[in-house]
Amino acid sequence: MSEIIYKKFQIKWYKEDILTYLSLWEITSQNFLQSWEDDIFTANIVFDKNPEKYIDEELRKFSDYYQVGKKSIYYNKKYSFLNLKLYIKDIDSKNVTFYLNKAYYNIVKFRMDNLYPLGIHVSDIFLTKLLNTGNLVVHWACLYNTKNKCAFSLVAPPDTGKTYTTYKFLETDGYKFLGEDLSLWDSKTNKMICMPYTSTWEHRFKLWWFHVWKIPFVWIMVPHKKHSVYDIFWEDKVQNEGDSKIIYLLEQSDEVNSVMPVSKDKLEKIIEKVKLIQRNEFWYYKNPLLLAFDYFNNTDLEWTKEKENKLIDQYFQQNKVFLVNAKDYKEYYNLIKEHQNEV
């Protein structure tokens, strides 16, 4: 059992392992947040060779592989002597159970045709639940300044310098971790919520010139323990939640290094850029399983996507936005640190 997002989402299962493509988290073998609440979203994962025995409602045939009910969906597809089975029960509730056989779990590691790994289905289903309750999961980093009690976000396209900047701040006294690859904003409280299992710096800051896990697909065939922020910086560098105050938009530029407030007339274009970054990370509205469920139950994934866009707009409206220009990505840390000392 692990709490993946502080006070928001936990996962329960009967096999201690690392799932593939868990975009809301990467590590599930630890738990150090420990703040269980009755209203938290829960994913139960159960391995069974016959998931269909748990079906307790009438299902309608959507295609050769999908059967859909009012609160569940069943996938069954044969590949030669293999029979891949996945049954998801109580999709409409806070407590969703995923029943699957080992063939599905062991074979489906990548997106193939209408086959998605278990981790994608878990992430996509709970991402829609979080969005529809006013929680925005965003593809950027977030840190907490213990001196001014301020949570600030680092927004940038991939490979711009978010990971390096986050790492440098965590090496600095007075700053704590809230998120690195992904962060969560609660629109009802304007707080950033800790997502401790999404860090990506392990493979970027290895001291060795070579290690086996950089070989393509080896990490799929031979699971290994990934390291969380807790392993690297210890528990006192993790902040459970913090009031959101500032958004820093990082851009590499040949201009003089600077941190400048973003005017209202330029903010709209920046928000559109941010939405493009978001689209690159999350594809829940194209998940074939969710589309099949949506076909009969009118859950309206397009409305969920629209709500995500509105939450992004609201997030930028409720926080101060600054543009950080730097000639080199290593300069972001110094520029933002100096600015944090002044606010």
Features:
elongated; single chain; 2 domains; 28% helix; nine-stranded mixed sheet; Phosphoenolpyruvate Carboxykinase, domain 3; eight-stranded mixed sheet; 343 residues; alpha+beta
Task: Describe the overall structure.
The chain has helices at 102-107, 118-131, 162-170, 218-221, 229-233, 264-281, 288-297, 301-317, 331-342, and strands at 2-5, 9-13, 41-47, 60-61, 66-68, 72-79, 82-89, 95-100, 135-138, 141-145, 150-155, 175-179, 183-186, 191-193, 241-252, 258-261, 320-326. The radius of gyration is 21 Å and the shape is elongated. The strands form 2 sheets. Strands 9, 10, 11, 12, 13, 14, 15, 16 and 17 form a 9-stranded mixed beta sheet that branches. The protein has an 8-stranded mixed beta sheet with strand order 1-2-3-8-7-6-5-4. Helix 6 (264-281) crosses helix 8 (301-317). The chain starts with a strand and ends with a helix. 38% of the residues are buried. The protein has 2 domains: 2-129, no CATH class; 137-342, Phosphoenolpyruvate Carboxykinase, domain 3 (Alpha-Beta Complex), CATH 3.90.228. The chain has 343 residues and is an alpha+beta fold.
